Amino acid sequence: VNNCVGFSNYKFFFLFLAYSLLYCIFIAATDLQYFIKFWMNGLPDTQAKFHIMFLFFAAAMFSISLSSLFGYHCWLVSKNRSTLEAFRAPVFRHGPDKSGFSLGCSKNMKQVFGDEKKYWLLPIFTSLGDGCSFPTCLVNQDPEQPSTPSAQNISAKNITEAHPFPAKPLRESQNHLLGSGQTWSEGASDDEKGKLGMSNPVMVIENET
Fold it and tell me: Smaller CB count within 10 Å for the chain: N or C?
């Protein structure tokens, strides 16, 4: 490990705990029979019997401490949490949520060990992601998560369906708001044009006498 435990070396730290626990259990199991003989005074009276006693107690104590720490990190991996997130829940748009990054037990393990199971027990970096952005189980996308092209296409499609726009833009002469004067229909007669022309308001200034 030789560093703070984070995204880039969490798998190595987890395997270090697993390998250390298995090694201590192996030492305690193989030394148990000689420890029983020492307790029953069945060993020769030499200094080697004290080495056997020390080795058994050291392996047994490390096995107990490592088993508790390894079990705790197995629980963290199954929940896809870090040690800090276990004590203080991460905050999302809707508020704090301890299970915000949990994708299910199987997918949570793949986040740490990778997609290929043949590399899970090997000290090779196979964790998923870049260490900066992580997938969440939230329905609404978190603002800290990067937007993917597929998500952008889906959101643009939803906006288009909710607010349809005309296929062809109106010409300026056909738009009443953009036109500077009274619009004339192409099929209107001269009488109708005259009536439309008379409908324009005219400001008359009268001089008071």
Answer: C
